[in-house]
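for the recovery benchmark. tokens below, seq after
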């Protein structure tokens, strides 16, 4: 299979390069910048991409490649720092920039080249760099410039090495995908054929081989797309030897456990639902601080999961393997540029005791969220799970401001269910990134019959977002707000006021706690 390796020099955009390449139908993997030439030879990629990064090539601790990679006869594309490093390594000169250039710029193509097939003579590109190249290495030609940068693109005369100062992987470079495609198809001579959905069968076969000796395999399922996809994959590989477990914390959305169980049943998996709600409510008694709530829920989750795992292991005659739904973004976010193999702790199994008697496997470790969705769809997982909105690990506990009690959790579940139903009815469920209700720790005056009363106040939140890092409040139609409000006050006793949250992130966060 044609593979591209991306050597990561720590740019915030490295992950986007991998995504962009994969979206073009070519499998790309991010590797640490200090990977050796032997290792690259062993992996036999069809192309290499050197990512951007914050360093200057002249800094004493600047990350550098194993220079023998230039002798492997593999095409290399250097992006930003990657281009400067290539120029520096091959005898060019890099100029220390006086000031950073950050933002849009006009690329002017000086020489037609296969890298720029399909581009206009001038194209908009996105710049983010301090240093720039003063003189090209011998046997390189300059392909393009911008008003600020004399060498915005370069190419070696043998046609193997390319460098571009701008970032083709960001949306602000509209022809970026075109340039990457040209590099992959025209320079690396790759025929794109990779698709994540096509990987499903291969993954199943790999799991069959890898788990041949396992007596039983355990997975903690949350009802979300990652763990569900991982569970179905492993089930297809080893059938009933997989034991999927769902822990009901009492802090889930209304009907979540039953809904997940029904879906799994349809997929042929027997989900074991463990009602541990009383333990979670006990752990949260008297706690109002959000971080303390998170800490206690995380700790209790691990205790419950581990105890259940031990019980199940005794009951079935041995569990050897634990499956985690870790995905690529979890892996690379926690690994950092140097590629240390540290895996982000997940709220469900992250803090298991050191000596767990299980081998841990992560079948989705190499896939991005969108790719996991495609694999899930290929496996027949229903759309309601595939497109489920994000739900925080600590669940409703961070939407119940103040103390979490079973009564307050039940009340919020009912309110939240109305919000979800009404958005679904309005056809907005997919358009809105996240939508939910929050139970406030105050009461407000209400008119009940002939008298005054103090009722509960709930806030409704709906936001649009691309990645959860920033968000805008969603302009829900008045009619939808109207029906949400009247249904909540009519159907949920005790709630007498509904407010709508009209703040964006920043400054507010998506969750209230
Ligand atoms: P904030 O509130 O920080 O949320 O704007 C960003 C995204 O993260 C989710 N979120 C959490 N997810 N554990 C999680 O697994 C948490 O403690 C947590 N807090 C927030 C939130 O729902 C949103 O999607």
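predicted aa per position
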């Amino acid at each position: 299979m044609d593979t591209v390796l991306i050597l990561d020099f720590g740019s915030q955009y490295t992950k986007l390069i991998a995504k962009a390449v994969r979206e073009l139908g070519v499998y790309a993997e991010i590797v640490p910048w200090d990977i050796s030439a032997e290792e690259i030879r062993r992996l036999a990629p069809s192309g290499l991409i050197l990512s951007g990064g914050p360093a200057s090539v002249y800094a004493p601790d600047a990350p550098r490649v194993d220079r023998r990679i230039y002798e492997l006869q593999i095409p290399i594309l250097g992006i930003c720092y990657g281009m400067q490093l290539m120029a520096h390594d091959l005898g060019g000169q890099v100029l220390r920039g006086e000031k950073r250039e950050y933002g849009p710029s006009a690329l002017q193509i000086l020489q037609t080249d296969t890298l720029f097939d399909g581009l206009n003579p001038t194209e908009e590109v996105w710049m983010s760099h301090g240093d720039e190249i003063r003189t090209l290495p011998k046997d390189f030609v300059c392909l393009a410039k911008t008003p600020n940068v004399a060498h915005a693109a370069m190419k070696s005369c043998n046609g193997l090495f390319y460098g571009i100062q701008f970032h083709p992987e960001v949306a602000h470079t509209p022809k970026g995908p075109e340039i990457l495609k040209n590099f992959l198809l025209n320079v690396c001579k790759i025929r794109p054929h990779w698709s994540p959905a096509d990987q499903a069968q291969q993954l199943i076969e790999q799991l069959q081989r890898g788990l041949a000796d396992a007596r039983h395999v355990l997975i903690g399922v949350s009802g979300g797309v990652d763990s569900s996809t991982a569970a179905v994959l492993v089930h297809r590989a080893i059938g009933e030897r997989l034991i999927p477990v769902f822990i009901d914390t009492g802090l889930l959305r209304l009907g979540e456990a039953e809904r997940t169980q029904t879906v799994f049943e349809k997929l042929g998996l027997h989900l074991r639902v463990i009602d541990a709600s009383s333990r979670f409510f006990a752990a949260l008694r008297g706690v109002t601080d959000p971080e303390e709530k998170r800490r206690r829920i995380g700790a209790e989750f691990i205790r419950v999961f581990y105890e259940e795992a031990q019980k199940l292991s005794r009951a079935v005659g041995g569990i050897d393997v634990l499956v985690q739904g870790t995905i690529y973004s979890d892996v690379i976010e926690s690994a950092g540029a140097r590629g240390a193999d540290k895996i982000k702790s997940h709220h469900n199994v992250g803090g298991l005791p050191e000596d767990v008697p299980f081998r841990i496997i992560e079948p989705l470790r190499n896939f991005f969220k969108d790719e996991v969705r495609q694999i899930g769809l290929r496996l027949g997982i229903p759309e309601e799970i595939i497109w489920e909105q994000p739900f925080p690990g600590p669940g409703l506990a961070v939407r119940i401001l103040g103390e979490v009690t079973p009564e307050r959790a039940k009340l919020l579940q009912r309110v939240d269910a109305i919000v979800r139903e009404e958005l679904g009815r309005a056809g907005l469920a997919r358009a809105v990134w996240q939508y939910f209700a929050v139970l406030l720790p105050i009461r407000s005056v209400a008119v009940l019959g002939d008298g005054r009363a103090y009722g509960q106040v709930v806030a409704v939140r709906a936001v649009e977002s691309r990645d959860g890092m920033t968000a805008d409040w969603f302009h829900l139609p008045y009619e939808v707000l109207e029906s949400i409000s009247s249904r909540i006050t009519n159907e949920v006793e005790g709630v007498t006021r509904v407010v709508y949250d009209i703040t964006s992130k920043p400054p507010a966060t998506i969750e209230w706690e």
